[in-house]
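Apurinic-apyrimidinic endonuclease 1 structure dump, as promised
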Amino acid sequence: MKEISIRAFKARMKTSGYSASHILPHGSYLVNLGNPDEKKREQSYECFLDDLKRCEELGLHLYNFHPGSTVGVATKDESLSLIAGCINRAHKETEQVVIVLENMAGSGNVIGSTFAELGGIITQVEDKSRVGVCLDTCHMFAAVRLPDLVNVTEYLTNTSRRAMTSGRMKAGMAEFERDVGLQYLRGMHLNDSKGTLGSKKDRHQNIGLGELGLATFAHVLSDPRTRDLPLILETPAYDEPGTSASRLGKEGMDVWRKEVEVLNRFGNGVHGEGEEAKMYDWTEEIREVVQAASRKHDAKGKSVKGVEAGGRKRKAGKRKRGAKDAEEEEDGGDDHCESCIEEG
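structure tokens r here:
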């Protein structure tokens, strides 16, 4: 990295009031450290290591990535060991960055859809002070096994749309505590889900407009165990065309601004009389901004395929191409990340 870029990044962090411990960069979706093909795994490792070194140059403390896939060749246990081996190797070639494993939605041969798999990697990591987990709410909802609703996924998804009891919340963290350990929770990705419970589909939706509902995020944000963690939105923004730098502070960020504004209201908890009415009103606030952004996006000739105003899914017509291609295009760049790993 150029020194001028490093200085500019650190200056902007200071200006914006960001702490390095609250920034959680995301690795390439193409990296697959669980690939049993040594040559391909080495290519992934070089990309992985380059990212880690960039983080250290920028003074960042955390680095999030998708663990990988068996690609249908290795066993899960074999891939878990390969991933852990790459992490151990990377720790020796870097100084301080913490490697954060993300839980996955469970499609195909992807690793990390169960906490036991994440725990199986961490168990084999030598320096456990430099490994952690990022929980993605959409992935958790998609990956849940239907008989296992009384676990951490139910805690986070509120599938019944009712307020949860404190007993359920405690039961909710039991699986994560047992298989991973709360001390390894280093961040969260806050995403609603287009896919239904247990669908194994990694399809992100705007906060409150998907299957999880706004009450899910009220519980997450008011839980003391999530305090001081980086909480990252990966929801559709319907943003303006152009580079990130050209859009900064301009049009195109309205959806994320509204979602963050609503999420910040949950810091002190939302309980008691009128709670359901507030949830409804705040959901509608987000829906209105999404509708406006979607209409503007469409008007500029950048059609949001498969989505009506308000984040509702349109009925799909006949597909003229392969089902996988059409499904991935429908949901945009960030929402089909698991399919990339399958081929890496």
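Strands lie at 62-65, 68-69, 98-102, 110-111, 131-136, 185-190, 192-193, 204-205, 231-233.
lmk if u need the other ones
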